[in-house]
Amino acid sequence: MSSSVKKEMWSNVETTFNANSTGPHRKGSDLEKKWENLTSTQRGIYQDHQRMLTLTGMKL
């Protein structure tokens, strides 16, 4: 996916978010950074969960 397509997609996310938000308006770059932070945090939580399952002998 090209960077121009990504910028256009985040612009669409920005427009939709700001149209539906009752709070302060956010820029697409701010929303993208928040998304990256959320996915990074959740990835770590999921990996910890998988590690715990492996340590207890459970397999998925």
Q: Radius of gyration, rounded?
A: 17 Å
How large a portion of the residues is in β-strands, by DSSP E? under 5%
Question: Which class best fits the helix and strand makeup?
Answer: mainly alpha
DSSP helix count?
2
The percent range for helix content is over 70%
Straight-line N-to-C gap: 32 Å
Q: Please, what is the oligomeric state?
A: single chain
Uncertain regions spanning at least 5 consecutive residues: none
Mean pLDDT over the full residue set: 92
* Largest sheet: number of strands, sense, barrel closure: none
Report the order of strands and helices.
Answer: HH
Anisotropy-based shape: elongated
Give the number of DSSP strands.
Answer: 0
- Can you tell me the number of structural domains? 1
Protein name: Myb/SANT-like DNA-binding domain-containing protein
Pfam families: Myb_DNA-bind_5
Organism: Dreissena polymorpha (Zebra mussel)
